[in-house]
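Comment thread on ticket #2218

A.B. wrote:
> Attaching the input chain for the structure job we discussed in standup.
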Amino acid sequence: MVDLATPLERIDGFQARFISKLKKLGIETVRDLLSHFPVRYEDFSRVYTIEELEPGQEITITAAVESIKSRNTWRRGLNLVEAELSDNTGTIRATWFNQPYIKNALQPGRIANFAGKVVISKKSGEIYLSNPTYELVSEHEHHETKHTARIVPVYSETRGLTSKGLRYLIQPLLKRLPEIPELFPVEMLESQNIPEVNSALQTIHFPETIEDAMSARRRFAFEDLFFLQLASALERMKLAERPALAVAESVELIKSLIAKLPFELTHSQKQSLWEILQDIEKPHPMNRILQGDVGSGKTVIAGLVAYATAERGAQTAFMAPTELLARQHYHTFNKLFSQYERGVALLTASEARISYGHGLESATTKTSLLREIASGKVHIVIGTHALIQKTVAFHSLALVIVDEQHRFGVRQRAALEHGKTLIPHFLSMSATPIPRTLSLTLFGDLDLSLITELPKNRKPIISRVVLPEERTNAYRFIRDEIAAGRQAFVICPRIEKPEESDSATSFIAREVKSVKEEHEKLSRNIFPDLKVSMLHGKMPAKEKASVMHAFQKNEINILVATSVIEVGIDIPNATIMMIEGSERFGLAQLYQFKGRVGRGEHQSYCMLFTDSSAATTRTRLKALVNAKNGFELAEQDLKLRGPGEFLGDAQTGMPDLAMKAIQNPDLVKHAREAVAALLKKDSTLKKHDAMRERLAVFRRDIHWE
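C.D. wrote:
> Ran it. Output below, let me know if you need it in another format.
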């Protein structure tokens, strides 16, 4: 018996050559194959007579094969099959390239449906069918067609397995499959106006009309969004049942810390701070994401919350993705909160430091620092993934802050929670703005705080696209800025030039600017009188730290770097961000680069260098130039690229339909409401066995780390 879990290799009739091809598409079971939905449809439903045909039409005809021949053309290795087709209204020629087997399949006298596009010959002006799909039929018997005379599904393909091959496999499988239990109650199907699962599965692959196909797609998109929301909601409920240290809000402390800051908090900073403080007062774990533009002041909010936690006698672990960023956060905390006498430490793979306020800061050994952390004397520990090593034992960890990681991995979180009675509160920070619909879908188990303003008196960064003929003027402008005392970043897509090769890919790669060659060009030819240095990920940690320290002290005029400076680097005197090969970066990444300047009192500039003349490149870069803030840019990026490319399918593991449906706010809203209504009646899914089983499969297939 065949069911959804049946491996395809166990099904009679599935040839080994198909199995290997399907595996390349990630298809191994019946569920996988039937969930490989069409990417589009071709409407060959109307059957024409030959005399009705006109150039440009997509048609099906039923015709007899009058004659057929095969020959090799003057192009080496190219085979051409030509057939003369007829019905009772006329004749037409059909041609196929590199499909010699068709000569044997379509013998003279056979009747078949032929579906494809009618084209016109430039030489003779005659119309003919180019590479039509064919399907043998009988004049006297009705056949259910797969490839012609209907709405025809077109699938994502792989070498050696076409849409025709997939239709050949899927149609009989649908007939063999026993009835699938419906996951949703009848009232939900009716309220959402979606078809029942068995009908939808048949219709999405072999619809009668395009409207039916869209209805079926909506059903499965709703299903994917529903289970995304359901998994998040249950995770939220589960977290709410776990105990956490309630960090009582110390109003006087917070007021004191804010009063001593060298700037005034914006309204949205205050709002976000209040939301977080309200959360950590509760006896169950906070699970919140703090989003805001680059330079909007997320770190100071994290610092205020960390010191409020320290006042309670509890500890905070603040994790950053790079040593550079961890070190910068450590120095920022010591600078902003120097008057506060609580132990703040830095722990990375290469460094251990500790500070007790008022400038009492020094290097220490890791062994010594680990003892201080375990004893509870150090209240705030800032570091990289070094914080979650087995050697690190916190005395009373109450708060975990993770910077620039949308998802804190389950394994990493478990490492911090292991053996603890009380679960730490969790705050994720991100300067990569994500459209609200995406946030509600992807981060449904996280509460959302937004910082929507930049600090007061911050000047907008002037951005512009620099074409090849404008390069000399741009260099002149950079020199003038440096003469005025400012500094510049130059970003390149790669560290060094690849080795020579004859391949087209290698040729393209060699055209991409590298840090090492750009550093040599700028220091020798363009700015020989200036101090030009470079920074990239392959440099030793101490060397990177030394370069950044020199740049911070204005001992370096121009820093040529890779995306290693994408997050967290804070150099107020740097006013120019020059990006080579800007078309090679995503808009979100370009926006991160742009945010590395404009952090001081001086006017700043972002120069997007490109040699590309492609219209799509100009459109994308123009979106960056015109965007007023990161959230507006994220919306534009989502429209330009679609959610799959915006997020990266491989990183989210999300189903294709869900990825597309994310752009439908109404469908997301309906899915959230349906989940809320269901859990209100059955919070443990005891009455919904099929739904519970499907959720387990869904959780297994989706990876969010």
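A.B. wrote:
> Thanks. Noting for the ticket: The chain has 24 helices and 24 strands.
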